[in-house]
Amino acid sequence: MKLLDLKNLSQKRLSALQSAGIHHPEHLLYFFPRRYLDKSNFQPIGFLRETGEPISVAGKVISVNVSGYKSKKRLEVIVQDRSGSMKVVYFKGWKYFISRFKKGEWVALYGTVKQYGRYMNMAHPEVDQISGPDDVEQFKSLTPIYPSNKHFSKAYISNQIISDWVQQILTATTVPEFLPDHILKRHSFPVRDEGLRSIHKPESKAEADKALERFKYEEFFLFELSMAKIKNIRTTRAEGKILEPGPITKNFFNEQLPFELTDGQKNSLKDIRTDLTSGEQMNRLIQGDVGAGKTVVAIGSMLMAVDNGMQAALMAPTEILAEQHYHTIKEYLEPLGINHRLITGSQKTALRRDILSDIAGGTCQIAVGTHAIFQDQVEFNNLGVVVIDEQHRFGVKQRNELLMKGDNPHLLVMSATPIPRSLAMTIYSDLDISIIEGLPGGRKPIKTAVRTDKERPGVYDFLETSIQNGDQAYIVYPLIEESEVMDLKDATMGFEKLKQRFPELRIGLLHGRMKPEEKDGIMKRFAEGDIDILVSTTVIEVGVDVPNASIMIVEHAERFGLSQLHQLRGRIGRGRKQSYCILMPGQKLSKDGRFRLKMMIDTTDGFKIAEADLKLRGPGDFLGTKQSGLPEFKFGDILEDRITLEKAKNDAWQIIRSDSDFGNPNHQALKKVFEPYFKKKAEFFGIG
Ligand code: ADP
Ligand code: MG
After folding, report:
1. Given this model, what pLDDT does residue 628 score?
2. Residue 466: CB within 6 Å of ligand 1?
3. Is 598 helix (H, G, I), strand (E, B) or coil?
4. CA 137 – CA 580 distance, rounded (Å)
């Protein structure tokens, strides 16, 4: 069957379907109702009461009248059954409805009734023509209400027409199943064809819900199957190099590191060591809240490569962060004689050439950089471990480009965007996950408050006293790309005003438009305590680590997202001192804005904040759907349908473990559907 076989299909309607992405009858079957009407509750007219609930009646048309003048015209119909009569009124669209009521014929009506004088009135009911009082069999199943669609309404494709088309397709075809039998049985899912019938014409809401679960499962399952397959290909196509920690790693942890590792850090390192010595390629995500101490874990894993004569690469999303990691590594590893280099996009040609030759020749043991590190000219001698910091800032594609620089190097990605664990395990299911719980000891929870512009003098007095006591502070202004120029003005003006207000303090300005050397210079001075107040845009949002900074003032705080505020606040509270975060909204708060600031005051727990943010923004926006490789699921919601997602994941992994090439005769139909689906995914994930 083809779309062209549909009844009442004009050229205009065909193009409307195509504009809505419907090119094949099966696509229309996957256009699901948004909700259902239950028109099965028929009541005798003479016993109707006002309840506010919609009900159905079957009645004979006694009279049809148009009354009123001009725009006030309305259609009034009297219908009657054996128990009594009532009035039906249409104020709008009466020209259309008048054709549906013929004196002496029977109609089924669905709507709510109200008493007006002598008559029960039903305004704007849905109307269906029927042959007589007993012709109500068709209303036993629920009536689907399809989502509105601008293409459809332009081509006058009504709800009824969609429903008719769907039924026409379902009458003409049987939709083949592709889920294996054992899966259908395990979850008592209806087969595909039956499920679609239930979706489009269910007898009950329960029947529709059960069918819907199957289709949510179906899309989750295909996704999870591809994630499992990708991981399977990665781990089996090449052996992972075995990297036993040696003297350098031990020396670093025992001699160089000025603090005890937290349990979370130890456990992550243990997981990494197991991976690196397993003979399979490591694919691990380290998740830890801001300030949890992910950097030393990264350094530890890179040293295991160095210990085995291999190179390691660390990639960070901003120049500031790359610089900072470079300095940290210098501080810890220079004494150990480890050769390390920084590579960024803004380096001069001569320097760059020198760095590139160091990396290609293998003299450079650890390379730190921005995305410049995976550019074409960069060649590694023998890359053993790749670390990606703040990985949510990168796309899957960039991750793969860096991996291509070596011969199946081990991969460690790190993220401070804490998402509920079960969710992380399903979304990043091509990765193993270690979580660093808790923060290093001796930290006091950050105190957070909201202050208005009126209270600014008090805030500034507090700032001044604290700085006199040796503290340092960040003052952050928003920077949103579209209005970059205006925001820059904000930060620059704020900077000038502060210099006037605090002539005796050392104040620095940092923003994205500055030259990298300038940025680096300012950051270095701030880190060394030569700047008291750093006025900055959000360029400091990720990763920046200056433990002595204990005050943060966020201007226009209402313009930041919740996770972003949490990330920003994570720049303070890194030392032993009590830290303070002061949020200063620039204007009257919206309801969401108020909620975000309240959340910031109430908790410093990144997981709680992430969960709230996820709810506010939805997974697509929160996770950066396009980047993460997570499809926008049509039916399922990764939060609300977590249980279904979990089932799909477990089944997918079981199939890939036992039959990764789909040789099993029971998996042939699945194979046919999965192959084209996987082809696209594999391209995206850089699996050839
Ligand atoms: P993040 O997880 O946000 O990347 P960092 O690695 O930047 O955190 O660490 C935050 C701060 O905590 C740094 O100043 C770091 O030196 C310090 N730190 C890390 N681990 C410990 C620890 N076990 N004990 C004390 N301080 C630590
Ligand atoms: Mg970090």
Report:
1. 60
2. no
3. helix
4. 69
Q: What's the pLDDT tens digit per position in 635-688?
A: 998 878 889 998 999 999 999 999 999 999 999 999 999 999 998 888 777 765
Q: How many CB atoms neighbour CB 456 within 10 A?
A: 14
Distance separating alpha carbons of residues 142 and 208, to the nearest angstrom = 9
Pocket test for ligand 1, best of 390, 545, 550, 572 (most atoms within 8 A of CB): 545
Ligand 1 atom 24: residue of nearest CA: 440
Tokens coding 403: 């991996």
- Write down the residue that tokens 């696509």 correspond to: 27
The two tokens of residue 415 are 């993220």
* Ligand 1 near 636 CB (within 6 A): no
Instruction: Report helix angle 205-237 to 668-684, nearest 10.
Output: 60
Amino acid at 156: Y
User: How many angstroms separate the CA atoms of 147 and 156, rounded?
Assistant: 14
- Ligand 1 atom showing the smallest separation from residue 294 Cα: 2
List domains and CATH numbers for the chain: 3-151 (2.40.50.140), 174-230+641-688 (no CATH), 247-436 (3.40.50.300), 447-623 (3.40.50.300)
Quote the tokens at residue 603.
Answer: 């908790």
Q: Region 374-398: what's the mean pLDDT?
A: 89
Q: What percent of the chain has pLDDT over 90?
A: 67
What one-letter code names the amino acid at 338? Answer: I
Location of structure tokens 């003297």: 247
Residues 459, 582: contact at Cβ < 8 Å?
A: yes
Q: How confident is the model at residue 551 (pLDDT cuts 50, 70, 90)?
A: very high
- The answer to whether 67 and 88 are in contact (CB under 8 A) is no
Kindly give the residue spans of alpha helices, DSSP state H, lying in 469-590. Answer: 484-501, 516-527, 562-569
Question: Over the stretch 203-253, which tens digit does the pLDDT of each residue have?
Answer: 999 999 999 999 999 999 999 999 899 888 877 766 788 999 999 999 999
pTM of the model: 0.77
Nearest CA to ligand 1 atom 4: 294
